[in-house]
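Human: If only I could read backbone structure tokens as easily as an amino acid sequence. Take your time, and here it is.
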Amino acid sequence: MFKKTAKAIFDGNPITNITNAVYGQFFRRTNDDGAARTNKWIENWLMSRDNSRPFFLFVNYLEPHLEYRPPRAYAREHLPEDITYEEAMEVPQDAWGYIAGSVEMTDEDFEILLALYRAEISYLEEKIEAIIDLIKSEGEWDETLFIITSDHGENIGEHGLMDHQYALYDTLLHVPLYMHGCPFDDGARDDLIQLIDIAPTILDTLNIDAPEAREQFQGVSFHPDADQSREYVTAEYMAPQPSMDALKTQIGDLPDHVYEHDRSLRAIRTDEYKYIRGSDGSQELYNIQKDPNEQTNLVDANPDIVEEYDAMLDEWLDSFNRAKSSQDVSMNDDTKSRLEDLGYLQWQ
């Protein structure tokens, strides 16, 4: 055990490794990343507010993010029978190291991480249900528009990736969307929808005109009475996060294949096909109906479809005005550090 610990400390940057080891041993969460505290705050606020006024509440839970460390009881429900919680906690969760090739992962490792991820979601589901029960106990449920969604999914070994970086596959883009409140109580729908469509849908549901806001929306309302629908959805990944320089700072020298991720991406998806175009000239085409896991690139075999979707993507890019801003943005060191850890900021 001592030799293993010593090797972990002195491989790479010793100071960084010691800091991470101390954090992992004494400070890292073992069962909750804030959902319980968030729910307590919501309970206190909801029960003390002026209930004669309508309210808007936005909640961002962080549980289903790396590192996956769900409460033990939830992990046991999802882990393979022959894997203990302690063994699961030893599986590497270093997405950057895996992508850079400095951390090796087995199929069993990914099976365990997927189980932990599902356990995180199961735990979060319980916390969301607690909020629903709270709203019901306050007599507000029937008059509440309640929306559950996610800003991204996760790659857990799919496409040779971990976390939610460097790709526009459906493992990241196909997220849940649940809506309660008239007129969204009639079961499942299979519309093509983007997250930007939620804002105009809320306005339609609440009968709010807001013409100035609507003029700036790119979203399309999916209210049942709306007269628009989407033929396709789009997605963008504007810059690699973390950047190659950030990876080199953390990992050291990078193998050549990692630089394939040093590009921006745009994608367009219909009910049948997904087309992904990279700033490096790369192209990918998948038949979503026949190949939902996006394993077989059909670019070479379908030049006509590629040309059609390429033109559709250009038409979409030309369809809206781009805002310009010369204002500087500032933030405190704690916020900057947290955003860098999450991959939303890059080192310069």
Q: What stands out?
A: Residues 107-137 form the longest helix (31 residues). The first strand starts at residue 146 and ends at 149. The beta strands are 146-149, 155-156, 162-163, 177-180, 233-237, 265-269, 273-278, 283-287.
